[in-house]
Amino acid sequence: MIVAGVDEVGRGALFGPLVAAAVAYEEGCVPQGVKDSKVLSQRKRESLYGEILHSAKDVSVSMATSFRIDEINVHNADKGALREALLGLRVPVERAFVDGFPLEDLPFPHEAVIHGDASIPVISAASIVAKVLRDHLMALFSVHFPLYGLDVNKGYGTTSHREAVKTHGPTLFHRTSFHIKSLGEKL
Predict the structure, then answer these.
(1) How far apart are CA 77 and CA 80, in angstroms?
(2) pTM of this structure
């Protein structure tokens, strides 16, 4: 049976896209050592990322840009990106596991699992793919926006990132409807 897992990274960030990844495996074939991306070191995530890309039946990624998040809100953007990632898989999925909440209109059965990235290996694999890809994006963005420390804070609302927004103003890639308003910025 082919099972899929889907998870996202970047929901609570001030800057950049939300990245959703879906992975498909034969049931029980997720590589050893796969865990929730938040509990793995960067080095271990990078190693597992390569292994997942090599061993998965398929991998699909979707993003919700900061513009999309501002337009439809983070919850709806999250659900859309998760759904698109699952529907982007090119193998016949027989069952899917979603981290968090159920999705609508999927052509296969699925189960929403709260904190599934910590308990369902196929969701953990998806969380690793999403985290590594988003971290790589933040490293690229940091080259163009060095004043915001994106290579370190990954776009999240750390004290130094918030101070940088107060001092230099938001970029086009900051989420104007999401957290930035709390900094008192006129956008």
Answers:
(1) 5
(2) 0.92
| Cβ pair 13, 104 in contact under 8 A | no
* CATH code assigned at 69: 3.30.420.10
Segment 53-92, tens digit of pLDDT? 999 999 999 999 999 999 999 999 999 999 999 999 999 9
What is the pLDDT confidence band of residue 130, given thresholds at 50, 70 and 90? very high
Q: Is residue 162 part of a domain?
A: no
pLDDT tens-digit readout, 114-126: 999 999 999 999 9
Distance CA 25, CA 27 (A): 6
In angstroms, the Cα distances linking 75 to 67, 70, 179 are: 14, 11, 14
What single-letter amino acid sits at 116? G
Those residues whose C-beta lies under 8 Å from the C-beta of residue 115, and which sit 6 or more positions away, are: 99
Using DSSP, state whether 174 is helix, strand or coil.
strand
Query: In total, how many domains does the chain have?
Result: 1
Single-letter residue type at 38: K
Largest CA distance in the chain: 53
Domain annotation covers residue 22: yes
